[in-house]
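Hi L.,

As promised, Rieske domain-containing protein:
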Amino acid sequence: MAPPTLPGPDGIQDDAQWRTAGDRIQTLLDAAASGGAAARERAEQLVREVTDLYGAAFERMMDAVTVASPELADRFAADDLIASLLLVHGLHPHGVEHRVAQALDGVRPYLGSHGGDVALLGIDAGVDGHTVRLQLRGSCKSCPSSAVTLELAIEDAVRAAAPEVCSIEVVAAAGDPDREVIPAEALTSRLRQPTAWQPVPELAELSDGEVGGFLVAGATVLVCRFGANIYAYRDRCPSCTTTLAGARLAGAVLKCPVCGAGFDVVHAGAGVGGDAYLEPVPVLVRDGVLSMAAPQGVA
């Protein structure tokens, strides 16, 4: 797959505008409720009528496109904004397994930068929706932050690509009896509360070996570049619980400036000679822009 092309400033602003359209519509519906139940009901009916109208038009367009130019349908499916609208109306040209596989391909560079990978074992259809069965491999398999990595990166990508997925199960690797299966309930909570992704294009300006602190959604995140890859972690040393401000890279090892503890940034922030782990913050290219999963619970 070719590397994504970064859009210009106007493209980034346009993407951000439409990405938040759903929030603005909900705000308007909530405001309509101040006029009473009847006013809210009329506003919701208006939204349904408009949605159905556009849905009917999209259906006719997709019928014509699939017959005349199948490759154009693939281009539509590759555009996040168009694909999201097609999903709303049940018109996406690709089945759930194809979309889930593509979503996993999108997060593999992030997992691979931490020495990990994910395998799609299968998708089971149920009454309430589809269940995706995954297996984490490499560093992601044994690292205690695997659940965070899965919840904030893999699960978010799968949810966006296939909203009909109701649960995700992580299956233990063969010959790994001590590996616990992460409860599906813990991983699917974000299906109801999607991850907030923040565009952080300035991360691309980091040079090889450079470490910098970034304020993202009110939280300080430590970001470093090692080779071609960018790694982000919460600004907290797990050994002495202090800030990592002033930390430097020695090869792939990030050294705490206070206690001297070292952490391998390439392998999920694993402690060098210890059991402590840094807490990773996923960084992915979304719509051609470097974006970070907004850290939760850190001020």
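The CA atoms of residues 172 and 178 lie 9 Å apart.

Thanks again for sending the construct details.

K.
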